[in-house]
Amino acid sequence: MSTSSAWVRTRSFVVPAAASLILFSTAAASAPDHDHRPVGLVAQREQDEPVRDEFFWLAEINKATTVINSEDGLLDPAMVPGIAAALQKVIDDGAAPGAERPSTVVAFEPLLIEAGSTDVTLLHAGRSSQDMHATYRAAILREKLLELAEQLNTTSRTLVELAAAHTATIVPNYTNGVAAQPNSYAHQLLGHAAGFDRDAQRLREAYARVDRSAMGTTVLNGTGWPLDRQRMADYLGFGALVDNAYDASQISSMEHPVEVGSIVTAVALHSGNFVEDVLTQYAQTRPWILLEEGEGNTFVSSAMPQKRNPGLLNDTRSDASQAVALAQGPVFQTHNITPGMPDPKEVDNNTEVVDAGIAALAGLDEVLKALVVNPERALEEINSDWTASQEIADILMRDHGLPFREGHHVASEIVTFARSKNIGPLEFPYVDAQRIYAEAVAGTDSPPELPLTEAEFRAALDPVAIVNNRTTSGGSQPAEVERMIGEARERLTAQDEWITQRREHVAAALAELDEDFAELRG
Question: What are the DSSP calls for 471-515, one per residue?
């Protein structure tokens, strides 16, 4: 695909120097490509690591129970090797291709009995399916949160680096669906990145609430057995305990999916907002932001040869909508039921919610990498209307002492006259600006003549100067944009480290459990 100096190919974040405008290829696929998604980070991890499903965590809970209770004198030492051997056989059998991997306590325990004897049921002293299921649901959900966090960070980093490539690109921004002011595309993109950063904050906070062990709380009020809850939590890699035994399986395990669903909703809404903003201007005959053609990004119409349909944008928007829809499920399932009911607790349903959020973010990452921006066309769009007119009012007040409403009235009258005569800001006659100013301030204490020279008047309507001359903290001026890019990168690095630390903590805990359990088997 050929590009011109007016087009910035953002997939590689470089600005090419070719001389001709972009030429659209008709070799694009003739139908939507719905298989454009990459394998992705999550899928790759699933290929590299053992499946930590309900069966896995039931096994880990039983391993930890065997180790702790044998050392605490709650199991007859003579029975411990046999119990450990039976448990290991169940684990080994479950690892075989196509093997049964039960997801409930009542289905797991018969396999233990078959592998050993009824003596293995001594493990169940002081336990219940309530606390065991609440524990594995939390363990699985916290892992899914880390997968979501990783994809969120990946997409956010793409967004920030895209901003770094567009610090000098000036585009129109909109409020109430109408062109409002010029802005640097970098500044606009960093605004979206700020929203995703808040999603990351919410995710970390939710993780801390999910990362609590319910083991040892039994059904709802604890047990008469002196179980070591803290050591159990440590072996399973949890950061804390659910303090109240009733809360453990009756309250918190119902609210976890709702809270995670709210985070997925926020992520999906942010993703959809970005896509819709691109699609709004994409419908123009001469957009300034497009998708790079081919590679599953666009497809041609079967009937209309001129069309290049933005399939990737449509698919990503649909993914975001699907995530929002699925994320409401836990809310409806938790509504109007008594505490502890199973309705919102289904692992597969709640995993699907998180996976939908991951899919929306992965799609957005592809969108960001496929965007092609035409800075010259964007600037032309700004100059075709009066999006820079507020600067006239600001200068009249800031530099020449006019009350804001008087300056605003002057600028508004200039825009009204210009639109009635179909005059753009670059062609507006200075003499008309002088006349309109004099009429607007007549009878006031303001200077009777326009206090701006023609050069100053023209400069006031320069969108590049407007963007670069902002002075507020968080504004669009280059120094502030560079600061925000740097700080965004630092936050993303810190988030990466947080994800790594959480995973390493769980992995280390499970490795220690494996070592201690292996000693029991001799």
Answer: -STT-SSHHHHHHHHHHHHHHHHHHHHHHHHHHHHHHHHHHHHHH
3-state secondary structure string across 223-247 = CCCCCCHHHHHHHCCCCEECCCHHH
φ/ψ (deg, to 5) at 240: -165, 180
* Rounded alpha-carbon distances, angstroms, from residue 196 to 280, 318, 446: 21, 19, 46
Q: Can you give the C-alpha Rg of the chain in angstroms?
A: 31
User: What is the CB neighbour count within 10 angstroms for residue 519?
Assistant: 9
The model's pLDDT over 472-510, given as tens digits with 9 standing for 90+, comes to: 999 999 999 999 999 999 999 999 999 999 999 999 999
152 alpha carbon, distance to own chain's centre: 4
Backbone angles phi, psi at 12, to 5 degrees: -105, 5
* Coil vs helix vs strand at 18: coil
CA angle 507, 511, 517 (to 5 degrees): 145
Q: Is pTM beyond 0.85 here?
A: yes
Q: Give all strands (DSSP E) within 110-211, no chain letters.
A: 170-175, 178-184
pLDDT tens figures, 355-401: 999 999 999 999 999 999 999 999 999 998 888 888 899 999 999 99
**Which tokens go with 192?**
């979206």
What whole-number distance in Å separates Cα of residue 506 and Cα of residue 502?
Answer: 6
Helix (H, G, I), strand (E, B) or coil at 408: helix
Question: Which residues, including other chains, have CB under 8 Å from residue 51's CB and lie 6 or more apart?
Answer: none
Query: In sequence order, what are the residues at sequence separation of 6 or more whose Cβ sits closer than 8 angstroms to the Cβ of residue 78?
Result: none
Pairing status of strand 170-175 against strand 178-184: antiparallel
Query: What is d(CA 217, CA 245) in angstroms, rounded to the nearest whole number?
Result: 5
Q: 14: which DSSP letter? A: B
